[in-house]
Amino acid sequence: MADTRTTILDITEAAVLEKGFEATSIEEIAAAAEISRGGFFYHFKDKNALARALIERYIATEDRLYDDLFARARELNDDPLHALLIGLKLLAETLDDMPNGHPGCIIASAAYQDRLFDRGIRDLNRQAILGWRARFRAMFEQIAEKYPPKTKVDLDALGDMVSSVVEGGLILERALGEPGVPAAQIMQLRTYIKLLFAD
Amino acid sequence: MADTRTTILDITEAAVLEKGFEATSIEEIAAAAEISRGGFFYHFKDKNALARALIERYIATEDRLYDDLFARARELNDDPLHALLIGLKLLAETLDDMPNGHPGCIIASAAYQDRLFDRGIRDLNRQAILGWRARFRAMFEQIAEKYPPKTKVDLDALGDMVSSVVEGGLILERALGEPGVPAAQIMQLRTYIKLLFAD
DNA sequence: TGTACATCAGTGAACGCGCGTTCACTGATGTAC
DNA sequence: TGTACATCAGTGAACGCGCGTTCACTGATGTAC
Q: Chain B contacts of A115, Cβ < 8 Å?
């Protein structure tokens, strides 16, 4: 079996996606990991440390996902615009393939429960989102050089739109109980980018 | 002074926007309303009834806001496309004028804490979002009739995009501590619609 | 005009439960000499 | 090869606090006759 720490993180991730961080008790995590409540505190000094570890792990995974996806897209087509359009399609497919809710929810939960967490965790969240803004902004700059946009456009806001549309889509998906919203929203963003840059 | 029930709802709304529903205690609401904890339960049978009343009130307000905004826009320009573009600009301005966080947060909180609430509240949330989808879808249908869209487009997903972009923008705004994100995101959506329909 | 009763809008003490956290202790494994 | 000690990965009982909720009671206002 995997080491207990990883097991705890896996269990917590699933529980948080299902019902949020505060509603997930240490008792329940410990039971699922088949250790006692006391045993849990051997691995994490308190509940905040658990949240931090979870978010750190999620951000690392998400960064790797974006790296892979857009590198793969770039291999398929060397043009910056077409690579991004392919990448967004791959992203939409990936979002659809995540049956138990995309871990993006974890960022959103943290944003909505930030009173529970300490400053370090809020900074983590913040840096992750700024990182994604910069990542996509860089792509858009490269594209804009080759394909002058049809209208003047705020590239930071456009870079944010990836995160914004995924997170917003997740909220609708949860509220509606209707899967596939984030993927559909990403495809809308893709159409927007196509209209904005392609001739 | 306003009646106590309304005072309680106002206090709760502000507190929920600041830190979420679960983190807002009845003790604290009662203290701010200058009544005892027991007195609170004279007005609301339990905490769930408070949540329901808050969300009902929010949805009604939001519906009225959309009614007003797009009616005003339609008065300024009778063309369906241009009316919508004006309406979105007005919406962006309204979002920027809400200093203490837009109550949209309340829908998002409810989506992220839905384990806390009963089925009735989840249905309320669901119906509200479906209502907004239908509202914007109707506008897009009217527009598409006059201005054939440049690409095939899923009008339901496009209708959802208003909610999705506002909610997603709110998450970024909170996580970044950077005001103005929802408005900027709405302006991006506006550009998309312009490129999609206008010649 | 006075009396009896009902309703409204609370008070404030008490209860019980769940939850995060602490702490003394334990058995298994690893390391030094 | 055996002994002593340290570290790892826990156990399980106990503590205390906050929170939602209940309940008997109360003073002010309204209504019937």
A: 18-20, 23
